[in-house]
Amino acid sequence: MKVAIRYVIALFLTLGMLSCSSNDDDNNNSSEICNNGIDDDGDGQIDCQDGDCSEAQNCTQGGSDIRLKENITLLPYGLSEVLQLEGKMYSYKADVSSEKRLGFIAQDVQLIMPELVSTNVSNDRLQIHYMDMMAVLVNAIQEQQILLDDHELQIEILSCQIEKQEQLK
Predict the structure, then answer these.
(1) What's the whole-number average pLDDT of the chain?
(2) 16 band by pLDDT with thresholds 50, 70 and 90
(3) Which InterPro entries does the UniProt entry name for this protein (predicted)?
(4) Rounded to an integer, what distance in angstroms lies between the CA atom of residue 54 and that of residue 36?
(5) Number of other residues whose CB lies within 10 A of the CB of residue 18
(6) Which residues, in sequence order, are bridge partners of residue 117?
(7) Is 107 helix (H, G, I), strand (E, B) or coil?
(8) Contact between residue 44 and residue 94 where contact means Cβ atoms under 8 Å apart
(9) By CB count within 10 A, which of 33, 37, 75, 168 is most buried?
(10) What's the CA gap between 2 and 120, in Å, rounded?
């Protein structure tokens, strides 16, 4: 009896998988699997380079432990580089749905911060390391905050000077 139940379960699972895969083929709604090195959804992007994988755990978590790193230096990029970036809206040529995407053009980023761009060896296309860009954005925010604090101090000094001049009148 237990053997028969196992065969029924195996048959059910097999039919379930077959029906899922045939639905995907019929509707052309396949989605990117984010860790298999294949362009599953046909948009020209593989795994973590595919926007569909931007929130996948294997694409967002890196080895940040200092014990894994060497040659650590301060980041040379910040606000001036971020101000040169131009965000774009686009769709991929290979994406039949023409879904609008937001991002940057790799060739543009490469001119400003070449370390953020690499060439995909499987297709010779440029790709942006968006997760690495976060460090640049944090630097830019910190630089901007210093400017804001400085301006606030200048305003306070000028306000005091105006107040003193008005008291002299």
Answers:
(1) 81
(2) very low
(3) S74_ICA
(4) 15
(5) 10
(6) 128
(7) helix
(8) yes
(9) 33
(10) 51
Q: Which helix (H) or strand (E) holds 63?
A: none
Q: pLDDT exceeding 70 applies to what percent of the chain?
A: 76
How many whole angstroms separate alpha carbon 151 and alpha carbon 148? 5
Least trusted range by pLDDT, from 16-20, 74-78, 82-86, 95-99: 16-20
Sign of CA dihedral 154, 155, 156, 162: positive
User: By three-state DSSP, how is residue 100 classified?
Assistant: coil
Nearest to 125 by CA among 49, 32, 62, 41: 49
What's the average model confidence in pLDDT over 134-142? 97
The pTM of the full predicted model, rounded to 2 decimals, is 0.62
Q: Are 78 and 97 in contact (CB under 8 A)?
A: no
Show the CA angle centred on residue 129, arms to residues 123 and 132, nearest 5°. Answer: 160
